[in-house]
Amino acid sequence: MSAQRQQPPSSRSGRSSNPDRDIADWTGPKIRYDLIKEFTIALVVVALLTVLLASLFSSPDDKPVTLKSWAASQPLDFAQTAITELNGTSETATYGPPFNNSPGAGQKIGPISLQRIPGVTHPINTALDFVIGPLQSDIDTPGLRQALAQFRRSSTAQRTKWETRYANALGSGTFRSDTLHVKSGDYGPIATMISSLLTMARSGALDGALLRSSQFYGTDYTKPLMFLADGTYLANVGNSYHVQGTQWGMMNETGNYPGQAWLWLYTMWYQIPPFTTSHNADALIWAIMMVLTLCLALVPFIPGLRSIPRITRIYKIIWRSHYKRLKTSSSS
Question: What is the CA radius of gyration of the chain?
């Protein structure tokens, strides 16, 4: 017997037929589909594949990047970054929302600054949170109490002079015999403070100091991560694992492991001009993805776009077995 399908009416309530929407209910043959059976089979197959592939290939088990590993591996870079946190010139200190209200900071779409809409939701004062605060918890270090007291008593102008001199001296500084060495100069308490912070980081105490929270479990890693990001160590580690943004890093795993392939559409934009060099890349790409997402959600309502499946007849390929049976039954 041949399958019959009702033809769409030429008009409904006096209006012309719309081929995209005025489709009558299907009255042709139907096939039973056991959803529970299909789900069970898929679950078992995926579970077996997961166990098999995990036993064969394992998974990335790289040691975490910490302030301790940074200070132990590149102590001079740590000290150079610490002074920028203290004098307020680091990337975090000048980032703007959600960390601070740094003037002129924030990515924009035209005149709209997306960063400033929610405001400062996670305040970070780099001098207090990354340097002075942790040092106050290590006040028993020889000379540190006096250094902090001298720093507090000094004027902003005097602090700036000390910090600038010490930052310049670190450019030719060295680290040997577990001690930071710079040329002699008038650095006030800054040399003692940065050296003490480096010692604290190398012992692992700084990681704990920046993870302190009112919660029982410390799960907020924002501060140590932002401190790490201001130096070059974390970027170098990311580059060695090919997880930088310019290396499709958002969708990669460390080592030779596949990442989140479904993120390719998002990360693709970071690889092409003008987003590769734009300071507003994050905001612009976010806007593009919102437009694409909206287009996808509104496919049934966009004339022309909603007609693509009907015009291309792609469904004939997807359901080819069904149409083959239908053709056989029609000819019999």
Answer: 31
DSSP 8-state symbol, 25: P
pTM score, whole prediction: 0.73
Helix and strand counts by DSSP (H, E) for the chain: 16, 6
310 contact partners, CB below 8 Å, separation of at least 6: 19, 20
pLDDT for position 51: 92
Q: Are 44 and 134 in contact (CB under 8 A)?
A: no
Higher pLDDT, 55 or 133: 133
Confidence band for 118, pLDDT divided at 50, 70 and 90: confident
Sign of CA dihedral 140, 146, 152, 157: negative
Buried b (16+ CB within 10 A) or exposed e, 116-135: beeeeeeebbbbebbbbebb
Distance CA 137, CA 130 (A): 12
Among 293, 292, 279, 289, residue whose Cα is nearest residue 115:
279
More confident residue, 94 or 247: 94
Q: What is the token pair recorded at 147? A: 């250094």
Domain-wise residue ranges, the chain: 22-57+299-331, 67-240, 261-297
* Contacts (Cβ under 8 Å, ≥6 apart) of 147: 189, 192, 193, 196
Nearest to 75 by CA among 255, 254, 195, 250: 195
Distance CA 200, CA 138 (A): 8
